[in-house]
Amino acid sequence: MRVLMISIDKGLVGANPLGDVIERHKRYGEFVEVLDIIVLCKRGFKRQQWSERVRAYPTNSLSRWFYYIDGVRLGRKLFGKKGYDLIVTQDPFVTALIGLSLKRKFGAKLLIHFHGDFRRFLRSVINQADAVRVMSLGQKEYLVRAGVAADKICVISTPVEVARFEYWKDEEGAVLDSSNRQLFEEYDFVLMVGRKDRVKDFDTLFRALNLVAERRGRVGLCLLGNYTAVEAYRNGLSPAVKLIAVPFVQTKDLPAYYRACRLTVLSSYSESFGKVLVEANASGRPVVATATTGAKEIVKDGHNGFLVNIGDAKALAEKIMYLLDRPEEAKQMGRRGQLLVREKFGDNTRKVINLWRELVK
Questions:
Q1: Which domains does the chain have, with CATH numbers?
Q2: How confident is the model at residue 343, as a pLDDT?
Q3: Which of 2, 32, 81, 92 lies deepest, with the highest CB count within 10 Å?
Q4: Residues 6+ apart with CB under 8 A from 96
Q5: How many CA atoms lie less than 13 Å away from 243 in the CB half-sphere?
C-alpha cells in the first residue's frame, strides 16, 4: 500500500515538533510500502526522510495563498514518480481540496481527517471523499447532524503509545535537573502541555492558577510548549505561581514531566481529542479539563479526572485544589485512568492502518 499524506504540521519538515508527531508517522510507515507527506509551509524548509519508508516534502510556498497551487503541483509530481493507492488529508479545508484534486486526476482513494473540532467545513469536498476519520464520537454526531452520511465516518482517535507512559522509569534523573527537582519537591506542580495558541485558552488557565495560589499557596505550573516565562507573567500569571517553562521537550522525556507533576490540566475551549489527557492518565496522573468534545471522550467526570465548563476559571481552580488537597484520592483517579486509557486507546495505530487497508481494498 502506497500512501500520500497532506499535512500542515511543520514539525514533519524540521520545525520543532511538539509531542510524538514524527514517531507516530514512523510507526505508520512500518505497515505500508511508502508513506510520503506533503507539508504546506512557507519557505525555509528541507525535505526530510524519517525512515526508510517515510519522507516529508515541504511546499516552501511564497505565502499561504499559494498552498493549494503548490500542494497540487507537488502532489502531481510525486504521483507521476511513485503512484499512490490512498490520499490522507489532515483537515477538511485546503489539504482536503488538494487531496480531492489529486483523487480526480489519479483515481486514488481519499480519506479526510478531522484533527480539530471543526464546526465549519467544505461539505461538497467531504461528500466526494471515500471516508472521513474523526477523533471522537461527539465529532461524528455533529457531522451526521450536518448531513454527512454516518457510514462514511470512522471514529479513531490519535494513536498514543500508552505503554511508554505507563511503564516509564526514571533513569538516574537524566531529564529533570537538580534545581527543577528541588522545586517539584517544594511546590505542588500542575502540568499544561500545549503550544501558545488561542484555542488553548491560557487566560483561563492563568486565572485559575492565580486563584489556587491565592487560596492555598505553594502551587507551581509546569508549561511545556513554546510559551516563555516572561510571556506567561506578562499575560496575567501571578508571580505567586512558581513557573517552569520548557520550550522544547523530546518525546522520550515527556513521561518524566507527567510523573513529576501532581496532575495535568487542559483549559482549551475547543479540542477534537486531547492526547495529553490520555498521556497523563497513562502516567498514573489525574486530569482536570474543560468539557470540550475531545475531553468528554476521555474523561469520566469524578472517575479519572474532572470536567468543568469552558472558560470557567473558578471551577477549574476548585477542581485543581480538590486534587492537590487529596493526594490519595488523586492517586486512585490516576490508577483508574491508566486502566481506562489502556483499554480504550492502546491499539489505535493498528485501527488506523486497518482503515487504510479497507479503503484501498
A1: 2-160+346-360 (3.40.50.2000), 162-345 (3.40.50.2000)
A2: 85
A3: 92
A4: 89, 112, 122, 125, 126, 129
A5: 23
